[in-house]
Structures are given as structure tokens and as C-alpha cells.
Amino acid sequence: MSYFRLKFWLFVLSVTVFVGCWLFLFFNHNDHLVKYVPAQAEAYFHTTTQNLLKIPEKQRIFYLSWLEDKSAMSAGRWQSILEHLDEEVGFFSLNGQVFAVAKDTQKTLELISRNETSFTREGKVLFFPRLTVSADKLHETEWFKQTRRKIAFTNFLIYIKDIRTLKIPFVADQPSSPLALAGSAHENTLCLKTHGLTGQEVGRHEKPQISVLPADTSAYFNNIFPGKIVQNAEYSPQNFIFHLLKSLNGAVEFAQTPDGFMIIASQKENPTEQLQSFILNILAQTLPSEKSKLLPDQTTAIQYIADPNAWKFETVVSDYQQQYILTEPKINLDLRLTEVDGQLIINNNFPHESIVSSPANINTTSCSGMFSKNCLYIKPQSAELSNFFNHIVLRTGIFNQNTICID
Fold this sequence. Notes:
Elements: H1 2-29, E1 43-48, H2 49-52, H3 57-69, H4 75-85, E2 88-94, E3 97-103, H5 106-114, E4 120-122, E5 125-128, H6 142-147, E6 156-160, E7 179-186, E8 189-195, E9 219-224, H7 240-246, E10 252-256, E11 261-266, H8 272-286, E12 289-294, E13 300-305, E14 314-318, E15 321-328, E16 333-340, E17 343-348, E18 375-378, H9 383-386, E19 392-398, E20 401-406
Helix pairs in contact: 3-4, 4-5
């Protein structure tokens, strides 16, 4: 009998714990605002004002500036309301304009009124700035039902109707696809996990060949297929690297500093002669030759002709290696192609001693723990961007889930 009672009370205890956990999740991680958001919203961001204050200051300033640019409210008014609201809050975009939604409480109403902000009252919520709210709601739309994360142990959730609006360079050409991002902020680091077709399918898991990246590294990635980039760009000295990467087949490793760059690609997928031809054509489009032509009225016209024959690779043999060298001072190009163990190393003023067979590491960022065989690293080069973040690391996991770290 005592054994039966023990099993019974263990069962009751387990049920109680289970129900308690679900109640905790419901009241602490449920979104009580989305049912009021208009169905026409192209994006929706849900969080609490307490969690917003956890976002690193640089990113918070950037976010407030973005809100000012995308709404009829100043950054100062947004900051004043959000810092004192202490409530669940949602943001959504309609035709490129951003609005907020919060519970209709006396405190919220006083904050909005004190900051001389227009608002709309509907049901149990307040919208600000003022807008006309449709009867159809976001939570009833198919794309939101498909993407929604009902339970998430995160500081905030972001939903985007069409990933193509983000113009992510490494997204394959695909139809409209929704995206969810689950985020958290701690120790001056912002971490986002994506759920949706946000990146390329991992085709290989090669270890990085660049062991230690220089301190001034501005960009790095490995096991990414740049040839699948769907975006285009004009031919200019600034876009030379973009066109070079896009001409490569297969997954590559790439590192860039303010002075140069290095690319490691498969020689089998990128025959040296073929790549040389691509490079010469890129240069011809970037720096067309000028030719004068005498017109019938005896005036002279200048023609710009893309001539790949204006350059030629020089072959140099040293240390049992064969290098192909091409220089162009106009765009700070000192390009060296080297064939090593089935790999093609494309080097332009990048430290040679960095090439070894151990994993890459960057010790200057709190996101360094994110480094893996498949990752992308960006450090802002302009003073304007460096005011908003120090580094970004994107780690690819599976095709529909990636992790982004911003510090």
C-alpha cells in the first residue's frame, strides 16, 4: 500500500511541476499584443522594455535612430517612452513606417501624452504614433502562422514577412520566404538565431586554412559559396573583390584587411587559366581603355573599351611553386595566384605566414566563441558604422538556422 501511495504522490508532483512550467511559460513568454497588430504588417518585433535596455548601447542608439527615420517620432521621444514604460511592447512596419503597440494602462497613456505623441486606442492596447487599424490581424495570416515561435526563452522575437527585403548577399535566389529571429542580449553582446531560409546550405566542413587573422581584419568567412550570390554590382575599383568572389565556384575561405585580401578555393573547381580569364575581364570592365576617335566634323570623341588584353599575368617559379602575378596600381592590386595541394590561393597584400592548417581565431571580440568551420565575420571600416557595432559574427548551422553575434 505504501508503495502505491508513493507512486501516486510522485505522479501528482510530476503533474503539478508540468502544469506549473506551462503556466510560467504562458505568462512569461507569451505575446499578448500580436492579436491586435494589423494583418498588413510586413515585420513585427516583440519584447519588453526591460529587455530593450539590455541591448548594448551602440546597437540601442542605432535602433533609436532607425525608429526616428522610419516613424513620425524623434529618437528622443522613443527613448523617453521606452526607458520608462516597463511593459511588454511590440513594433511593426506598415508601408515602410514603424509603429509601436503596448497595453492600455494609465502609466502608458501618461508617458505617451507627456511626450506629446499621437496615439490610437483600440481594445486593450494603445498604438503610437496614430494610425488607422484594420479589422484583419497579423496572427491570422498564413505567413505568420508558419513562422511564429509560440514558446521561446529569448529576450525578443522578430518576424519578417519576406526575407528578400533584407537584401542579404548570401541568400540563394528563391521565392518570398518569411523569417523569424529569436534574440537575447547579455554582457554587451547581442545574439540572434534565425529560423527560415536565410543562408546557403552547408556543402562542406573544411577546416580554416588561415590560422590567425590580423588585428585589422575587416571581413572573414569560410565554407561559403560566393558564386551563388544573386545580387549584382557595378564594375568599380570598390567592387573588384565582389566580382572576383562571385566568379569562383564551390565553397571558399576569404579574409580581408584594409590593405589586401586572401581567398582559398578549390583548384579543381576553379582552373587557374579560367580564373585568370575571369580576372582580366573584371579588370577590363572596371578600368576600360580610352581610345580617341576622329569624328566627321573633325572633333575628337573618347571611347571606353573593355580590353582584357591590356593586362597579362607574369609567371614566376620559386621554392618549387609556380606563381602567377598581376599588378594594377590604380586599384592597389598586387595579385598572386598560387597552386598548393589542390588549392588555389589568391593573395593580394595579405600576410603569407597566416596560412596554416589550424582553425581561425579572433581574440579581439567577445563573439570569438562563435567561430567555427562555417562562419562569417565583419568589422566595420567606416567611422559611421563603428559607432553602432564593433564586430558581427554569423555562424551557419543548418540551411534554415544560423546564429548572429553582434558586439
